[in-house]
Each structure stands twice: as C-alpha cells, then as structure tokens.
Amino acid sequence: MDTFSIHRMEEQDLEAIHQINALSFSSPWSREAIQAELHNEQAYYLTARADGQTVGYAGAWLVFDEVQITNIAVHPQMRGRGIAGRLLQALIEDMRERSMAVMFLEVRVSNQAAIRLYESAGFQYAGYRKGFYPDKEDAHVMSLKLPQSER
Ligand SMILES: CC(C)(COP(=O)(O)OP(=O)(O)OC[C@H]1O[C@@H](n2cnc3c(N)ncnc32)[C@H](O)[C@@H]1OP(=O)(O)O)[C@@H](O)C(=O)NCCC(=O)NCCS
What is the residue with the minimal CA distance to atom 27 of ligand 1? Predict the structure, then answer.
C-alpha cells in the first residue's frame, strides 16, 4: 500500500506530531521543543501524510557533514505499512544530496521494530551506550556512511 506522501515538516504538522510522540515515546518531546525545530537551521524534518493527515515523521540535526537522527515515529494505527521505511529512505536521499558523510542514531536495545527498520536501511552497529536513557536502558549506536552519488 502506498497512499501516503513525504513532505518537509510545516506548522500544520505540529499538532499531529505532538500526538504521535505522546503515543510513541515514554519521555516525549514537549510541543515547544517540536515547534522550535521548525526554526532550527540545523534541523531537517520530513513528514508522511495520508489523506492530508500527518501520520509519521523523521527528523535529524545536521552538524558539519554528520547527521544525527533525533526522532522517527509513526502513528500506532498506521504502523507496519512501510511508512517509516519510506521516511528514512527519503531522509537518506536528501542527506546524500546535501553531501553529508555519515548518519548516526541511538536506539533502545529492546526496540526491535526500530532496529529492524535501521538494519533494513543499511545501518550498522557502531557502539553501545550503557544506561543511555532516563530509565537506564542501554542504547545501540548505529551508523550509515553516505557514499556520494556519481556525477
Ligand atoms: C519504529 C517505527 C517508526 C516503525 O514504523 P513503521 O512505519 O511501522 O515501519 P515500517 O512499516 O516502515 O517497517 C520498517 C521495517 O521494520 C520492520 N518492523 C516494523 N515493525 C516491526 C515490529 N513490531 N517488529 C519487528 N520488525 C518490525 C518491518 O518489517 C520493516 O522491515 P523490512 O523492511 O525488513 O520489511 C514505529 O514502530 C514507531 O513509531 N515506534 C515508536 C517510536 C520509536 O520507537 N521510534 C524509534 C526511535 S529510535
């Protein structure tokens, strides 16, 4: 099924993203923190929309030629349809076009869905952070090198 489209995040996405975060994370970002990303020059956020409704998003911070993925989440009722996979592929493509060298992220060691998502996109294990999360769960660090496309 492929009835969704990918866009750069806009003001109109914020309320839905806030709700998706509340349904997806044990310590979700505040509404203000998400809104601030719209005006953060180092931030790059994509959203997925289905029938005009924002159903998922993926975001990153760009520092020099490195990309740190901040968040990726899909509304619980819309999971398992390839939406996160498409968001991540679009983010990777955009970062490659911007000549970024490498992407990084942290993921909870228990988060099988996210780990599978990143493995499918070619991310590799690059480290381990013990007690990284507020509840002391450990994190895998995963990374993806971005070879520049041939001209
Ligand atoms: C992780 C998350 C974004 C995946 O979104 P999604 O739209 O359901 O993912 P997709 O349908 O694109 O699936 C991507 C891959 O993950 C796999 N996957 C998805 N859900 C899975 C699950 N519950 N268990 C195992 N694998 C799963 C899919 O099979 C697919 O792998 P494939 O490409 O090899 O077939 C979603 O579960 C979510 O929002 N979780 C809560 C927020 C979160 O944990 N974010 C990650 C923070 S690091």
Answer: 113
CATH architecture for residues 4-145: 3-Layer(aba) Sandwich (3.40)
Quick one: 75 exposed, middle or buried, by C-beta within 10 A (0-12, 13-18, 19+)?
buried
Residue from 49, 79, 83, 108 to probe ligand 1 pocket by mutation (most atoms less than 8 Å from CB): 79
Summarize pLDDT for 22-76 with one digit per residue, the tens: 999 998 999 999 999 999 999 999 999 999 999 999 999 999 999 999 999 999 9
- Taking the model in full, what pTM does it have? 0.95
Cβ atoms of 9 and 29 closer than 8 Å: no
Domain ranges of the chain: 4-145
